[in-house]
Amino acid sequence: MTLAKLGVEGHKLAKGAQRNPRKVKRNKCLFCCSLQLCGNNPYVMTRCTQLLEEQMSINFIDVNLGCPIELVYQQGGGSGLLRREKVLESVVRSMSNVTNLPLTIKTRTGVYTDKNIAHTLVPKFRDWGASLITVHGRSREQRYTRNADWNYIETCAKLASPTPVFGNGDILSYEDYERVSIDYPSIKGVMIGRGALIKPWLFTEIKEKRHWDISSSERLDILRKYVNYGLEHWGSDTKGVENTRRFLLEWLSFMYRYIPVGLLEEPPQKINQRPPGYRGRDDLETLMASANCTDWIKI
């Protein structure tokens, strides 16, 4: 399944969904996909839900309760909704009532590091109409620091039963995935975020239960494939090239963190393990490991 955060403000979508249909266009290669809505207004979120079901070929709709970005948080969206339970209830109930698609929720453990609240909310999400809940094992304050708390996610999964709970946080290898599957039996699945940006071949590793010591040329082929998708999606004019380049550079800001398996002393790499300066096995591998954005432009 592929879950994409909707990159436009909800009120703009509600007022004119047809103005920029490319932002909500489904790629033909996706067999199961969803859009994640982030907002703070029950009416707008509900109207967006109706529009997406009417105009998009999607399999479910997700509510974003995890975004830690300051502007979003201060406006009461993303993890900011965790502070406004009455509004949150109205959002979830209203969205659930107007759609025939499954409604899912992605949440953090809470707002503050020392005050987890997700365990009190997941039973309510179930009662309000959520079909599945994903818990990111960090608070809003933690952002992406510290390790995800999978023990807490397991607790939430037990409390939400029979509604399935997925876990999110720190999966960067098939060993990470296997460990979660074995150690936390109440968690029914895993959502992968940063791991897929750093290692887009991670899903192949999980499926085949092996490390893939991917070559620099194979990684370049993946980037080339993305560029072709981007130009097909946005167009090959100046604006299309600019959009494709912009998102490619954002992606490279994650991909450079990958440390080739063949260079690791103790695999697997951990997600918060930053690569030391190293020379790759060829010039392209060295270039791809650079944290310098001017080198990303060269790529």
* Helix segment tally: 13
Q: How far is the N terminus from the C terminus?
A: 29 Å
Query: Low-confidence parts lasting 5 or more residues at pLDDT below 50?
Result: none
The fraction of residues assigned to DSSP E strands is 5-15%
Assign the CATH superfamily of the largest domain.
Aldolase class I
Under the CATH scheme, the architecture of the largest domain is: Alpha-Beta Barrel
* Main sheet overview: 7 strands, parallel
Mean pLDDT: 92
User: What Rg is obtained from the alpha carbons, in whole angstroms?
Assistant: 20 Å
Classify the secondary structure makeup into a structural class: alpha/beta
Number of strands: 7
CATH class of the largest domain: Alpha Beta
Instruction: Give the % helix.
Output: 40-55%
Order of helices and strands: EHEHEHHEHEHEHEHHHHHH
For the largest beta sheet, what order do the strands appear in spatially?
1-2-3-4-5-6-7
Overall tally of structural domains: 2
User: What global shape is seen?
Assistant: globular
CATH fold category name of the largest domain: TIM Barrel
InterPro entries: Aldolase_TIM, DUS-like_FMN-bd, tRNA_hU_synthase_CS
Keywords: Flavoprotein, FMN, NADP, Oxidoreductase, tRNA processing
Enzyme class: oxidoreductase
EC number: 1.3.1.89
